[in-house]
Design brief:
mainly alpha
Length: about 260
Amino acid sequence: MNWLRIAQGVLCAVEVCGLYYIFNLFYEQKRDKLWERISFIITLILFCGLTIFQREVGGMYSRYFMFLCIFLAVCIGKFFYNITFTRCLLVSTLYFESIYFSDIFLGYIGQALLDSIDFVDYIQFQINLERIIILGITRCFLLIVLFILRKYKIHVNNLCFNYRMLLIGFAVLEYLGLFSCEKVFIPAYREEGKIYVYFALFPIILILTFIIVIVYIMYIEKKNEMQLMNSQNEMLEKIIMKCYYYIRKEIEFFMI
């Protein structure tokens, strides 16, 4: 049991550190003074401790704790980074909604696969191997996403700047999906077993559609960038050719 608690603590730390990593990746820090650096480290430790405590005492999932995490993330982002309130709120909301949605959806899928109506209660209120597996899968997926964000940092930054309303719509849609999946904790919705997985599949389909749209926009941005580079190269070639003909004409004139 102790190693399960340690594993859960590590996964909770990964969750919190991932948020700090995103802030560091895309936004300029304001930690110029020593006390600001110390405060930054303290907030990181306290945030990790609070998350571990909630998972230990309150359970694997809590929508109200998610709201608290979003609030704390906005406060941290505004205090330690040069970032607007709107963008900070959007980043924090998308980050925690995605993590909590993934946790609860995997629990939903586990209940359907095992055909056990008490599975979600089992992982919600007890520290067990099944909960660690679910948290581990979602945190591994988080690390993959962080790697992608780092690799395509410029494109993601442009996406957030040019298509902010699209991301806001995604956040709203994700919350609706989270709200639908949350019904699995109500006993009345679990009595018929697997049929209620459709409460989760419907918002998942919508969210995947939204992700495809975002990927398509990133593709268009990349394509436009390549077209711009080609246009600049063509203009440069024309300028070089004009200079060449001008110099050649001047040389021919002096030779005459």
